[in-house]
Amino acid sequence: MSVSRQSCTSRQELFTVLAAGAVVLLVVHGLGRFIYTPLLPYLVDDGQFGAAEGAAVATWNYLGYLMGAMVAIRWHRIDQIRTLLPVSLALHVATTLVITQTDHLTVISGARWLNGVANGIVFVQAPALILEWLVLRNRASMSGLVYIGVGLGLLLSSGLVTGSADWLEGAERWWPAALISIPLAWWGAARLMKLDVPVRQQENNNHPVTTSPLFDRASIPLFLSYAGAGLGYILPMTFLPLLAKVELSAGHWLLNGTWLIVALATIPGPWIWNKLGARIGDLPALKLNFLIQLIGVLAAIVLPSEIGLILCAALVGGTFLGTVLLTQRIGRALHPHQGPRLSAAMVALYGFTQMVGPWLTKQWLDGGGTLVNAFGIGVAALVFGLVFVFFVPRSE
């Protein structure tokens, strides 16, 4: 059956399916989650809310992402995905439209929370559905290409915010993301719902496939390192343009340029780290990945403003998807019999640490600390993660 499906699957069909997956990730991640990063300094400047309140809004979004990931873990069957995936994309569009109509902080926070729920569900379920489809056609190795949509989403979000900066204000700044999300979400959902993926039958007995624990001496260091990665990268990915606004003069090209650099560095990231992991090994590649990312966040603190901001944008942008890719692959190698379960748990953990980052930043700012010093939280988290990578055993 798999041979027949493979022979009947054209390159155009493979490209269309991968493009649909990339598009829905572009919508929920680029136009949902990360467009908030370049928008934040404009919204603060417009007086919609202050920097501390902006950090709180980000925290609500990341809490939603964590809850969405948990929902996706609970309802993971193909028939459930076919229901939840289009509903989640519709929720993304609806909540983005709501934000275009209000300056009320509570309403914005609630809408961003629901938008995070939609993001978490889609980010887990869309790649999972595509992977099932590819496995039936012996093309599973192509599944990682859907994550290119994240990098393209960052690039698109940067262009939308910069291009509309002079003629939109306050809540209106969300309109470009809302309008573009509608056709993209509709096309991506319609294409993915047509995938020929059979619903798996339930097990005929109550015995689990494996009784080995999810957390053991091999996987615990990997989980801890991943927690450090999630907390370490989310600070620059949320506050880097705001830091540029604090440190640079009005009209400086890096006020918008930092997010553009992040976007451009993110696009080739998955391909680079996939190749490097295959060449030198995933564990050595992950250590290098953490080190480069650490240097990037540290640069924003210790180097002169322009140089530090550029290095942070380029190094963090070029590494954070590689961290995800390499960690997930190492986890599957350590526990190949329960890879999906391990992957789901890591998504939830990543979501939790991303929620903690903006919350800690808010506490720091409310206590009188500066935004640049708050980046020290990210440095400490990445050091923590790097240390625990050295305790992860090599898989046989």
From TrEMBL:
Membrane topology: Multi-pass membrane protein
Localization terms from the record: Membrane
Molecular-function GO terms, alphabetical: transmembrane transporter activity
Record's keyword annotation contains Cell cycle: no
The entry's keywords: Membrane, Transmembrane, Transmembrane helix
First-listed, main subcellular location of the protein, grouped into a coarse class: membrane
Gene Ontology CC entries for this record: plasma membrane
Descriptive protein name: Uncharacterized protein
Annotated organism of origin: Marinobacter lipolyticus SM19
